[in-house]
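Might I ask for a little of your time on a matter of protein folding? What I wish to show you is a protein chain and, alongside it, a tokenised description of its three-dimensional fold. I should value your view on which stretches of the chain appear to form regular backbone elements. You will find the record immediately after this paragraph:
***
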Amino acid sequence: MTGEDTVADGDEVECGDGVGVREDDGRAGDADDRVGDDDGRAGSDDNRAGDDDRGYRHVAVEEVANTPNPTRVKRELDEAVGASLFGCNYYEADPGERVPWGYHRHPDHEEMFYVIAGELAVETPDRTYRVGPDEAFFVPENAPNRAVAAGDEPCRFLALGAPKDADGAVIEEACPACGAVTDREYEVQTVDAGVNPDVTEYVLSCAECGETVDRFSA
């Protein structure tokens, strides 16, 4: 064999005392044989939010409908991609905005907050936890808590929970007027109404006696 000869994968070659088969190096093939884009991404932007035979979904967060309640921005990512076993919401909350209305618990549902930017204060019966960027906070099922955007900047975070079909929240807070530990009802007062006419306000009232117990801006 000359220096110019080459051996293809699977060719027989002389190996000193016998004939062997040259094996490849285990690689998946040359560049033309690779599957997908060079950078490993799932494809072009044309694939976003489109149907796929296997159920894959690719969405841009800013393109998901905003359903503010009660924070300024709430995007239900689980609904956008069709997730059925877990919930995932993207929030942008201005300082002082709450998730959700008040002190609550999920009897059969775990949840976790992941902070992208800003700070989230999670109030629990024992203490308040300050959760910053690239930090996560887990809430076990039936554990009371209330999350509030803290600091001077808006807080961007994800709230994830499972199982999705057991995400009902029980809000239980003592009413300062009647003393009963009850849920809260709310009314949205638009701009030019309420105590602060320059902003939209959520007005919370006791489900037992109807007395206004709190109000905050959206």
